[in-house]
Amino acid sequence: MQGVRFDPWNPDFVAHPYDAYAELRRAAPVSYFEPTGQWLIPRYADVNALLRDRRLGRSYLHVATHEEFGRAAEPDFQEPFWRVVRAGMLDVEPPVHTRLRRLVSRAFTPRMVESLRPRVRAIAAGLVDTFVEKGGGDLIAEVAEPLPVTVIADMLGVPEADRPLLRPWSADICGMYELNPSPEAQHTAVRAADEFAGYLRELARERAARPGDDLISALARIDELTEDELVGTCVLLLNAGHEATVNVTGNGWWSLFRNPAELARLRADRSLLPTAVEELMRWDTPLQMFERWVLEDIEVHGTRIPRGTEVALLFGSANRDPEVFADPDRLDVGRADNPHISFGAGIHFCLGAPLARIELIESFGALLDRADRLELVREPEWKPGYVIRGLHSLDLAVS
Fold first, then answer.
1. What angle do CA 235, 240, 241 make, to 5 degrees?
2. 100-144 residue pLDDT tens
3. Are 377 and 396 in contact (CB under 8 A)?
């Protein structure tokens, strides 16, 4: 790693990791990062291939114990967190993953997702109208966060009075996914997972007795789904259903402000919105890293990566790889050939990608339509997290 500035705890690196990624791609297509005990994989072709390689997995517990993988078991205090997380489909492998994804995918068919567009458009319009009428504010807190949280809460059937609980729970749970989370972050994530799980168990039991027209009611009627799996699925749908969308919105508008010619181009031609959303996800990726366990020895560029170790697939680097993207460091809202990897690939490809695209197109479109002029009040600051990467706030004035 000598000479390569990969430093995920450095605020300057978090703010702009792309120069370090370019150096990694050139000099070290595979490298061992001692602080986290992971193999860094920065090139698009390798990231894409390993996401689809069944010799790797999000978990190893379906094939080995902690001890067999040379790892210590998680401390007892984390049990409530892992009970929730490992009951959802993100952190399990086939055949459990196959069964859970098949059940949940019924709610995410193309027709059902497209049927949500009018509701998403109405929510986005209402949020943006309020934002514009008051002359602006924090775009993330007032538009980016409420939109996807409202949509997923509507789908799940969470009562409106309880919805303010969801975003804090989600943010706290996601803190466990950062690299080497602090003891405080771990305890916070455990508490949030336990509280959220308790809330969902109670709600699911109510809906089982008195079903409504919502996803929790539908899941509660599926005999194949245990209560733990229902809870884990709902937690995953909330976390995955809005964290990335919030950060694409904030990061995306910050990207446009730093590239005013592309913002002007988008304002002049709304037909570019679909390609612009894809490009904003590529250019400043919300999920910078996705981790996989090595279940069987693999070799990448002549380097043996042994069973029992972990690879860190650098999505943010893959999305700037010049072998795949022409002029990759240039933001191009009309980029047509854009096979970005922000939603993953393989069996863990993001189930909610079509819904996220609708939310982003409607959100950006509503702001462009209703705010003739958006001005940055102050340069934003990045949150300290590297894996799930986003801004604290984005303060704008509207005229």
1. 95
2. 999 888 878 888 889 999 999 999 999 999 999 999 999 999 999
3. yes
Contact 49, 321 (CB under 8 A): no
Q: Which SS3 state, helix, strand or coil, does residue 139 take?
A: helix
**pLDDT (0 to 100) of residue 4:** 54
SS3 string, 301-317, reads CCEEECCCCEEEEEHHH
Question: Has this prediction a pTM greater than 0.70?
Answer: yes
The pLDDT score that the predictor gives to residue 139 is 97
Mean of the per-residue pLDDT values for the chain?
Answer: 93
CA-based angle 72:75:79, to the nearest 5?
120
For residue 303, which of 42, 97, 91 has the smallest C-alpha distance? 42
Q: What pLDDT shows up at residue 238?
A: 86
Between CA 116 and CA 124 the distance in angstroms is 12
Structure tokens at 209: 């007795």
Structure tokens belonging to residue 65: 């114990």
Question: Measured between alpha carbons, how far is 90 from 101 in angstroms, rounded to an integer?
Answer: 9
Q: What is the mean pLDDT of residues 384-394?
A: 95
Please identify which residue in the block is written with the tokens 């995953």: 236
Residue 201 has pLDDT above 80, yes or no: yes
Our separate counts of H helices and E strands in the chain read: 17, 10
- Pick from 171, 174, 386, 176: which is nearest to 287 by CA? 386
Q: Which residues contact 211 (CB under 8 A, 6 or more apart)?
A: 217, 220, 221
What pLDDT, on a 0 to 100 scale, did the predictor assign at position 190? 97
Residues 6+ apart with CB under 8 A from 398: 131, 132, 135, 136, 371, 373, 374, 375
Say whether 398 sits in a helix, a strand or coil.
strand
Q: In the structure encoding, which two tokens stand for residue 328, read together?
A: 């990759």
Which residue is listed with tokens 């004035």? 397
Q: DSSP letters of 14-39?
A: HH--HHHHHHHHHH-SSEEETTTTEE
* 259: DSSP letter: -
How far is it, in rounded angstroms, from Cα 146 to Cα 151? 8
* pLDDT for 309 beyond 90: yes
